[in-house]
Specification:
Strand content of chain B: under 5%
CATH class of the largest domain in chain A: Mainly Alpha
CATH topology of the largest domain in chain A: Arc Repressor Mutant, subunit A
Largest sheet of chain B: none
Number of domains of chain B: 1
Order of helices and strands of chain B: EHHHH
Number of strands of chain A: 1
Number of helices of chain A: 9
Helix content of chain A: 55-70%
CATH architecture of the largest domain in chain A: Orthogonal Bundle
Order of helices and strands of chain A: HHHHEHHHHH
Oligomer: heterodimer
Radius of gyration of chain B: 15 Å
Largest interface: A-B, 57 and 41 residues
Number of strands of chain B: 1
Distance between the termini of chain B: 49 Å
Number of domains of chain A: 2
Helix content of chain B: over 70%
Strand content of chain A: under 5%
Radius of gyration of chain A: 23 Å
């Protein structure tokens, strides 16, 4: 088994020793992804399906490796990103796309029934009403759309794909929406403790 | 119109309450993830610059999920 530095040196070279190094890296990525991704999200996952793509990406980007981590750590980071994206696409093949359906607008309805006999039912109703008001008045259409997709269990990168945006922009949309809602609760004089107590 | 379930409302409120400033975003986190993982694997003192990664991972379910999978994979091949 080659150590990290030797593996990197041979991968940057050519000939049979490079082929051996590629085989070793492939084996390492396959073992890692098989362990980390199989049955993640409750679905079987064959790491063989993505390891070749990951290997090509690592080899194509090898000159960008700056040595801030071990080479295999860097390579596994790239492979994990490719693998988990493939797995998420598979996971959501059968999931309802209702969250992305804007035919009836971009609204989110906070309509959960509160049982009046429960303790805290009054404060819980007030919090739900305020949340509804904040969603309606503070969030943009895009923020509402991204937030409801997120609450429907879509990962940020999948939402980005659906909305033709990048992952960072979607994250920012959702994060800004959360911040607006948090600010709204604060303006209403509600502390985190009071909110959690009402929901308990 | 999308109606939220009781669980979704709770999730949204928990996310809202837990929101803190995040200067890094997903792009910055993905850029530094290997370095952050290496420090954790080596049980090294986390560089100050990595604090932003920790904060982002607490805020972003997508990156956190990816990071957790990465750590499982790395521990398997160590």
């Amino acid at each position: 088994m080659l150590d990290d530095d030797e593996l990197l040196r041979l991968l940057k070279g050519d000939g049979a020793s490079r082929d051996d190094a590629i085989a070793q890296l492939r084996s390492v990525l396959l073992r890692g992804l098989s362990k980390s991704l199989n049955n993640r999200y409750g679905k079987p996952f064959n790491a063989e399906d993505v390891v070749q793509e990951a290997l090509i990406k690592v080899l194509d980007s090898i000159e960008k490796f700056e040595g801030r981590s071990k080479f295999t750590t860097w390579a596994m980071t790239i492979a994990t990103r490719i693998g988990i994206s493939a797995l998420r696409r598979k996971y959501h093949q059968d999931v309802s796309m209702e969250a992305f359906n804007t035919a009836a607008g971009y609204s989110i309805e906070v309509a959960s029934t509160v049982d009046p006999s429960q303790s805290n039912s009054e404060s819980r109703s007030e919090i739900f009403s305020l949340l509804q008001e904040l969603i309606d008045t503070q969030l943009t259409d895009k923020q509402r759309l991204a937030t409801r997709a997120f609450l429907s269990d879509f990962a940020t990168d999948e939402i980005a794909e659906q909305l033709n945006m990048n992952r960072n922009a979607v994250y920012k949309l959702i994060h800004d929406a959360r911040q607006k809602l948090k600010d709204g609760f604060a303006r209403a004089g509600l502390t985190s403790e009071e909110i959690f107590e009402a929901l308990a | 119109m999308m109606k939220l379930s009781y669980q979704q409302i709770n999730n949204l409120i928990e996310l809202t309450i837990g929101t803190v400033d995040d200067t890094l975003g997903c792009d910055g986190c993905l850029e530094l993830m290997d370095q952050f993982a290496q420090a954790e694997l080596d049980d090294a003192v986390m560089p100050v610059a990595m604090e932003a990664v920790r904060i982002h991972l607490e805020q972003c379910k997508c990156c956190k999920d990816e990071y957790e999978a990465l750590m499982i994979a790395l521990r398997e091949v160590q």
